[in-house]
Amino acid sequence: MTTEAAESVEAAGVAPAADPGFLQRYGASIEYILIPGAALVGALAVFGGFVALYGKNPLDLYFYMYYGAFGTAFSWQNTLTRAAPLILTALCTALPAQLGMVIIGGEGALLIGALSATSAALALQGAAPIVVQIAMVIAGMIGGGLWIALSGGLRQYRGVNETISSLLLVYIALAVLNHLVEGPMRDPASLNKPSTREIGAANMIGSIPGTDVHWGLVFGLVAAVAAYILIYHTTFGFAARVAGGNIRAAKIVGLSVGKLIMTVCFLAGGCAGLAGMIEVAAVQGRTNANLAAGYGFTGILVAFLARQNPLAIIPVAILLGGISASGGLLQRRLGLPDASVLVLQGIIFVFVLASDALYGRIGFLKGKS
Amino acid sequence: MADASLGLWTVPLAVFGGAIRVSTPFLFVSLGECITERSGRINLGLEGTLVMGAMSAYGISYLSGSPWLGVLAAGITGALFGALHAGICSLPRVNDIAVGIALMLLGTGLAFFLGKPLIEPTAARLPAIDFGWWSDVPQLRAALRINVLFLIGVAIAPLLYWAFKTTRWGLLIRTAGESADAARAMGHSVLLIRLRATMVGGFLAGIGGSFLSLFYPGSWNEGLSSGQGITAVALVIFARWDPMLCLWASLAFGGAAALGPALQSVGITSGYHLFNAAPYILTLAIMIITCSPKRTLTGAPAELSITR
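Predict the joint structure of the above. Result:
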């Protein structure tokens, strides 16, 4: 990403002589790559300094991070497996963002999606695996979708701030999950780690042939592309962006803002719910507290770093998946605590948010120089 | 009263003692957040500040042998996180809620990272005052062993209420929260007021964290906070930005959190997690009841991003 950014800057430096309109036309797009790229580099530099204070060589750090994330076929598979839920939870923030809403409850929708999908699978024990899997996808998406649609509906019809309500719903979802997993839905055989019964090996969605990456990655890619087409190439997406830009204008031209908010929030929650279904059907095989692994919160970071663009979410999710995949290697080779991934994510997030102030302010990109 | 006749009385006693113990971090974080939100900004990062405060208090107490030095270190750490939040939010077009989420990640991550070597050793803990010396019922004596920090927190709440109402500082903070333009017209820097309010808020939240690691539960580990920082932020909304209501709400939420384990001790085990979620459900309910499409939350500072 950063090398791309560097190349585009070089291109930008040469082009104005030949075409003075170049920067006017492409300045904004260059900004969208250059500024998050610079924020990422800045965050990596600060993290390197932090690790140096801790007595480790930052160059070793960067090498092992690269190696653990993208160095081998094994690390690529590890990275992509982690990227799959991140793409989906990032969409949970990015889709409502088109309407100007800040939804941070992807984690809750993921947990409810996982619970719904598990319930569907347990109810359909004995049916053909393909039937069970389709039922799990539908149940997961509906469960997660309704969870976020609740925040959207409260915002539209009661004026409740959607950011706070979606965050509160994360903790309510976690309590519901813990309650069901330790009570009504508990598998009596799960002693130390209360869990539901297993959905059954036959119903797991398995790996993409020739790899160890599960099919969830394909679900994520399809969802991201579909979201991109929906937002940028349909009248529905156009209406959503109009409402996000100016809600009064949208009402004046007769758009049904309430319907837009409810649909977008349902789709957003559906994506996060699908992530929960994937974690159950491809990784855990059952629902338990392991599912609250923070994918929902990292998804918010991915969405902000991708500037809420569904297509940009794909590479960013792979990058962030890579960072978390390299955590194990950093622990083994450099003796860094496992929380170093969390620290780096936090630093990146801080830099990305602070870099929002830079848009439209970089002199040479305005075409004046 | 003999032990045997205590019977079901153990439940209200345990809830009472638990309410005091569990509510202290809620109290400090919510009073801190109350100051910050009254100045017109919301700091969701206090969850990270709380954990960071718990870690630094434990570390400094272990290294210096003085738990009070640990409390001070926790407060300073919290104030630094507050300064970071306010600093980033001072930049144009930056969303304060998103910055809060970022600092929540960063604070928790840093605390786990730096606190790794602190899981094993035992640090000096904060002392408690034994208010139950007159009784010979052990449950009552346990419930009445009260930490000084709780008393300080209880004292801060009316002090803050008074300060908001009558002092110049209180008026400035409220002006910045109700109308930034008015504060600017009076010749004050809104950013500076909010920086200070966020730093004081962080200071109190850090102290709330020190209570977790130095008194109850009284050790440092990565599962120390189960979202108390977020609960406290929700609690401020529940308490309608009133410091005295923050005190009562903290006690109520603490009692609700203590009800689960207390019922468990007399054999009622189901619904434990639902009790823990009570603060979130109640806050959501209060938001649904008091909001309408035409009117935002009553009592909310007008500049707050969640009311616009």
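Residues 90-311 of chain A form one domain.
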